[in-house]
Amino acid sequence: MDASVSVRSHPGPWLLENAVAMIIQAFVRRFRPPPACRRIALGAALALATAGVAATAGQAAAQGLVPHRALYSLTDTGATASHGATSASGIVRSETLSVCGDWRYNQTLDLVMTLSDGMLRRITTFSETVESQDGLTYTFRHEVWVNGTVAGRIAGQARMAGPGQGGQAIFQSPRRLVVALPAGTLFPLGHAAALLAAVKDGARFDQRSLFTGDAMETPLYFGSAVVGAPVTPGSDQALLAGRAWPISLALFDPDDSGPAPLAEIGGRYFTNGVADHLMLDLGLTVVEGDLLALEALPDEGCAAAGGSRASD
Fold this sequence. Notes:
The chain is mainly beta. It contains three helices and 14 strands.
């Protein structure tokens, strides 16, 4: 998408604008990505970070979360025209693996939009992250492609000093930047797990600090989640059994007192962390995601990691 298109309507939940939702410092306009592209990337990363929540064997047993692979179809909701696009469709693939004490998350979003000027834009985002189950380390790599050309790439790592302590994130690409992380900051899958645990305990409102590594200019988000009444869809799919909660998440810049969020995303989530429906405000368009395919994955243990954690 060319840099003149700007729709950062102050959103990848932790869910998708999820982000995961404002991603990527790009090689467009001296490493400044088109805001609309970053918004779409964030949505993708965040929504699916929750939809793809996974855990190691011990944590899965305690929290009921399951590693899995999912495929979603994306269609516009009819609200696209007011956002700058007249139609939109695409897919999202996500995979969350449990490997030797780490959560490994891979996600691809492929979206084709028709803008109000009649131009077609194909936006593809890729995210690869490794997050330790203790919530202390996180490595990330995000990319945005527009019409087959790379528009942004960002990578780095973050580490908290210890439980309940602060830490720092180091961006390595497209340039080096060190950012302090306050105590209580959570990484995407840890944030998703904490929110789902609160929901299972009856919480209907939740606020937490979140670091995704998707943007250098707004490295830290303040996430405010609202939880609806649970429903029982009655699916015959084992991973979709039991109750599910509609959850909407708004992400704010903690340094901006304005009322408008940087990202807004939502979905319907089961207690195991699986989502069967997504709703994503991607800036230029609002899309909903329907689950097309779902597969449970085994805990891969340490053999798949060569006997050591990737986050060590």
